[in-house]
Design brief:
Bound molecules: zinc ion
Cofactor: Zn(2+)
Family: Belongs to the zinc-containing alcohol dehydrogenase family.
Keywords: Metal-binding, Oxidoreductase, Zinc
Number of domains: 2
Distance between the termini: 27 Å
Order of helices and strands: EEEHEEEHEEEHHEHEHEHEHEHEHEHEH
CATH architecture of the largest domain: Alpha-Beta Complex
CATH superfamily of the largest domain: Medium-chain alcohol dehydrogenases, catalytic domain
CATH topology of the largest domain: Quinone Oxidoreductase, Chain A, domain 1
Number of helices: 12
CATH class of the largest domain: Alpha Beta
Helix content: 10-25%
Protein name: Enoyl reductase (ER) domain-containing protein
InterPro entries: ADH-like_C (IPR013149), ADH-like_N (IPR013154), ADH_Zn_CS (IPR002328), CAD-like (IPR047109), ER (IPR020843), GroES-like_sf (IPR011032), NAD(P)-bd_dom_sf (IPR036291)
Strand content: 25-35%
Oligomer: single chain
Amino acid sequence: MAKSPEEEHPVKAFGWAARDPSGVLSPFKFSRRATGEKDVQFKVVYCGICHSDLHCVKNEWGFSMYPLLPGHEIVGIVTEVGSKVQKFKLGDKVGVGCMVGSCRSCDNCSKNLENYCPKMLLTYNSIYHDGTVTYGGYSDIMVADEHFVVRWPDNLPLDSGAPLLCAGITTYSPLKYFGLDKPGMHVGVVGLGGLGHVGVKFAKAFGVKVTVISTSPSKKKEAIEHLGADSFLVSRDPDQMQAAAGTLDGIIDTVSAPHPLLPLIGLLKTHGKIVLVGAPEKPLELPVMPLLMGRKIVAGSTIGGMKETQEMLDFAAKHNITADVEVIPVDYVNTAMERLVKADVRYRFVLDIANTMKAA
Ligand SMILES: [Zn+2]
Ligand SMILES: [Zn+2]
């Protein structure tokens, strides 16, 4: 018979987990595997709260396994390394993002695209190589194969940097891959939430002109004055959208709710690309004719490989890019989830694990 989460491994651990699709998180005793020869064990200091954590605790994508312990924007300090670990030593600052494993041999893996490996293992709610369920960063300690651990740049803050591990790489990678990182280009960012606000910062750091596209006119001041966007469009205002038709080289669409693509496609120049990085739970309607008329591309992208994730963090450190965060104590997590449903956060909650996670 399978052992309980508390008994299956030798290292005692503690976190907050959801027990059912109500999504309510509560204290949870479990265990972590002994540090293997290529593993890095670390004390978790901060963990960001991603919108996908919310989808998962409530089983909105339909594949949640309970107890479910979320968190994939995890930063901490190394407490133990395996005998064959090469990249890290005790006391190093490190991070773990959305994945903790892949096959390491397929075509994607060989090209540093572990994120597209068919056997990619998520940081939580996946079955690890040893047959046990993975648990995320809403917990006191973490262990991961060093390949899936990133070096934390010295001058990058741990708290406001944590969300880069998901929100950062999710926007950085498509800007690079789709060639939307060239100075002089004009890029749109749709949705000004956790993903969108760091997308704007990366795009500006690449030297491109940025237009934020949002349903709420109230975000204009914030987008332009605080985040440095060059212009702002209210997507529900047909006159504004018409006036901006054919002006964008590309769009990063971060919206994770169903929304119309037609007005966005209209903003693209010939050969323009719209890259979807949010994951609406229902299919979107795809108007084909406007794609044909201008050889436009609709694409998708998810996080990035480990090499690129490291590159993104180093770039962020160099350009002083962090997320705007509200650091909260662990026992505030359920309130934070309720506020996240209403998008009532600027722009990311980060759990102060080191100071507020108290083992029951
Ligand atoms: Zn995420
Ligand atoms: Zn693979």
